[in-house]
Amino acid sequence: MTTRLQLTEWSTTPGVRLTPPQRDLLRTVFTATVQPSPGTNDLFDVTPGNIIGAGTVDGLAIVIRPKIPISRVLFLLGYATDPDHWRDGEAAIDDHVDVVDVVDAVATLYLRTIRRTIGRGLLAGYHEVRDTQPTVRGRIDLAEQLKRRPGLSAPLALEYCQHDHDIPENQLLLSAALLLARLPLRDTATRRELRRLTDSFPDVTPLQPHRSRIPSITWTRLNGYYRPAVELARLLLSGASPELGAGNASTDLLRIDLTVVFEDFIRAALREAAHLSPEEFPDGDHCAPLRLDVKGRVRLKPDLSWHHHGTWRFVGDVKYKRDTGPGANPDLYQLHAYATATGLDDAWLIYAFGPPEARTHQVIDEGPRLHVRHIDLAASPNDILTSMSLLAAELLPTDGASTLSA
Asked: Which domain of life is it from (predicted)?
């Protein structure tokens, strides 16, 4: 029999009885703080961090909710993967969804996204197949043939291209649906719909849910309509892991890092407001080369950047945490490094939580201006998007200047 433990992001739940694999799941996968309860030998105080989701191990279904409304998490996820759909006003999520478990809520969002995608037809494409057959098709893999069947003429080791639905895009969509169906869902109708959805991919091979095996996709005009669903599937699968540490326990996981979700949303909203492409306004891993030191040994990867025709136009950083005031030195030091490396007079720091007042720090000796802003995630989705449009108008240059005015 499976019991259920429900936790909340950044809130401590005292006196929880846990087995070693359950503690390992909380510590290593969800990065929760697990400490012995005072005066006990077998109970623990558990404080999750900014990773939400669910997993079952040793008969315990562990569910971690966000501290913000679940509807806001779904909004951030949905907008970051498909801004056009949200801009058209078709994907509003009401606050009543907060009565639903976080796993059911994410499954509902995924079902909605994937139905809209495959409603246009299942994507087909060419992929390479390695197989053994009695007759020649494509070309013979001589190395494989000689290794496995030296001196034998049949069956033949072959390599050939095949055109069907068993392509990475569909494999990702199917794998995410299978993962969600195995999680501790409360709504039986959602579970049934996920299982029906998997029947839509009869000839597709699911992937193993391990981060290193999640394929990246090259987007073109032919498969572009798949992008929102596939990016959401990749996000869900990137948090899945079939093994827990060195033990024998295993589980299926929904693991969502709200730091990544918030950062993706801010970047997507600024892109949309400024009409910039992902190539023009990339994430840190794909930004233009940026070094802090003369010899180029210290690589910088700002969360937000715009490098246009060899000139830095904008740089910024995103923090999914509360701004505790003007003395948040490590965050400002990091922002100062970005401003120094890019040569910009202004750099911007966006927090998820904090006082409504905007702040600007003028660095001494005519250094750069470090601007601090906050996004109210308790506001409605429309209000959040309005605030992002106003923020983009303030942050991003609209003329040929390479810096912003104070």
From this structure: Bacteria
pLDDT in tens, 220-246: 988 999 999 999 999 888 876 544 343
Sign of CA dihedral 223, 226, 227, 231: negative
Q: pLDDT at position 354, please?
A: 87
Side-chain half-sphere CA neighbours of 30 within 13 A? 30
The number of angstroms, rounded, from the C-alpha of 58 to the middle of its chain's C-alpha atoms is 27
pLDDT tens digits for 95-105? 545 446 889 99
Q: Provide the greatest CA pair distance for the chain.
A: 80
Rounded to an integer, what distance in angstroms lies between the CA atom of residue 159 and that of residue 192? Answer: 38
* The pLDDT of residue 149 is above 90: no
Residues 6+ apart with CB under 8 A from 358: 371, 372, 373, 374
The dihedral sign for the CA sequence 98, 103, 107, 109: positive
Nearest to 371 by CA among 338, 402, 398: 338
d(CA 214, CA 224): 18
Contact 314, 342 (CB under 8 A): no
Angle at 297 between CA 295 and CA 302, to 5 degrees: 115
**Residues in contact with 305: Cβ distance below 8 Å, sequence separation at least 6, in sequence order:** 281, 282, 284, 287, 288, 290, 312, 314, 315, 316, 342
